[in-house]
Design goal:
Elements (H helix, E strand, L loop, with lengths): L14 H25 L12
């Protein structure tokens, strides 16, 4: 059985859109980890953004 969605190239996201979404997800995750580390008494390196 073949997935018809794989054949529809018009419905796929552009690589730059996928890359931007990955960057946003990783930045959000890093921010969450930085908040947790800070709450546990850890130091956040200079340049790390904590929102």
């Amino acid at each position: 059985m073949k997935d018809s969605a794989l054949d529809d190239t018009d419905s796929r996201l552009q690589p730059e859109v996928i890359a931007q979404e990955i960057v946003q997800d990783l930045q959000g995750a890093l921010s969450e980890f930085a908040i947790t580390a800070e709450a546990l008494g850890g130091e956040i390196p200079a340049g790390a953004e904590v929102e």
